[in-house]
């Protein structure tokens, strides 16, 4: 998959094994989720069988294999899957363009026979509603699952709790305590999802469960994301908030459980500049007993950040020995083409489950750890597209880009950097954090600036 798709792809945010059975159940996007997942897997040169243990509508653009004899079906699957990398499997063609499901033991057998890399199973129905209650026989889990994805559509919140909006409405009311005719509250939505997570865990206790909440593109603002995330904060593991019809479907990633802080972040330290104005490599110059680069990295370490990427040019690669253990180094061999190449190199290397990336500069030695902490805290509480520090009303660094802006960042060229994105982002989508730290405005580019701050240090002023 192209670098521009890496961090926002669905596959990158899922704990997929090299081969396995992925089981999808719930409401509000199961079929499109199965399609998106299969497309992304085939883009990565994997093969995928899309199937069901109940019933699904027959897609128009994917080869279909129908049959009830497993050995015969397995042979035909092997032939058809080589054409497109994916294929739909069912046992019968039904009325209304539907396909009847397979035996729950088949997905495991297909893997054991090496028919495909992945078998993606839709394990229940929802009559195209965004949320559902559960009958005693649902979901129909396959005998093996390597990843479980319960799905709900967030547009259900606020709707009347009626059969127009809720599949198996009576069962949903009994499950969640929702009153007849609604409105469906966040607590009801979260209660349903927690029940679904429990069903998956009971079916396959050692299998990871990654809830996915679809259609967040229909929301106005991020308040509902925050409410749902808070209601599910006791969930141990990640929760994906997605817009599955978007080219970059994963919009928010919430990390729940002990030791997690909800929305988490990465740092990219840009250290690939050519030091043209300085006239000599500036990152190894010393202030306060440390190199400029070490001074820039020290406050990041104090924040406890776990995902830090340092981008060097080929000329600066020799400074790798200054990088603390656990940080990752990326060498941008295209650094002469402009800062955008370093932005993209760093972005392609970060944890794809981060909600945002703080872009820091290797030549800013005076920024304190508190600046990073306050930027991340503000972003967690408000989820703007951009967050930056200000001092005396002036914009400083580092700048935090939410993952929803990453596709635009990956399209920048030359020395454009993130300037155009900053100017085009609406005011209400920008978080400004006023700080007392003047270091957010100070970078050292020229010999005069270096001498001024070095002299200031030695004089104690």
Task: Name the CATH architecture of the largest domain.
Answer: 3-Layer(aba) Sandwich
Count all strands and give the number. 24
Radius of gyration: 25 Å
Main CATH class of the largest domain: Alpha Beta
Distance between the termini: 53 Å
Number of domains: 2
Low-confidence stretches: 1-5
Roughly how much helix do the residues carry, as a percent range? Answer: 25-40%
CATH level 3 topology of the largest domain:
Rossmann fold
Give average pLDDT, whole number.
92
The proportion of residues in beta strands is 15-25%
Q: Which secondary-structure class do the elements indicate?
A: alpha/beta
- Largest sheet data: 9 strands, mixed
What's the SSE blueprint?
Elements: H1 3-6, E1 20-26, H2 30-43, E2 48-52, E3 55-57, E4 64-66, H3 70-84, E5 86-90, E6 92-94, E7 98-100, H4 106-112, E8 118-122, E9 131-132, E10 147-153, E11 166-167, H5 169-176, H6 186-203, E12 212-214, H7 223-231, E13 237-242, E14 250-256, E15 265-271, E16 286-287, E17 290-291, H8 292-302, E18 308-313, E19 328-332, H9 339-349, E20 356-361, H10 369-382, E21 386-391, E22 394-395, E23 399-402, H11 406-409, H12 419-424, E24 430-434, H13 447-459
Parallel strand pairs: 1-8, 1-10, 2-5, 2-8, 4-5, 9-11, 10-12, 12-13, 15-18, 15-20, 18-19, 21-24
Antiparallel strand pairs: 3-7, 6-7, 13-14, 16-17, 20-23, 21-22, 21-23
Helix pairs in contact: 6-7
Describe this structure in words.
The protein has 461 residues and is an alpha/beta fold. The protein folds into 2 domains: 3-256, Rossmann fold (3-Layer(aba) Sandwich), CATH 3.40.50; 265-459, Spore Coat Polysaccharide Biosynthesis Protein SpsA, Chain A. The chain is built from 13 helices and 24 strands. It has helices spanning 3-6, 30-43, 70-84, 106-112, 169-176, 186-203, 223-231, 292-302, 339-349, 369-382, 406-409, 419-424, 447-459; strands at residues 20-26, 48-52, 55-57, 64-66, 86-90, 92-94, 98-100, 118-122, 131-132, 147-153, 166-167, 212-214, 237-242, 250-256, 265-271, 286-287, 290-291, 308-313, 328-332, 356-361, 386-391, 394-395, 399-402, 430-434. It has a 9-stranded mixed sheet, sandwiched between helices. Strands 15, 18, 19, 20, 21, 22, 23 and 24 form an 8-stranded mixed sheet that branches. Helix 3 (70-84) links the parallel strand 4 (64-66) and strand 5. Helix 6 (186-203) packs across helix 7 (223-231). Mean pLDDT is 92; it is low at 1-5.
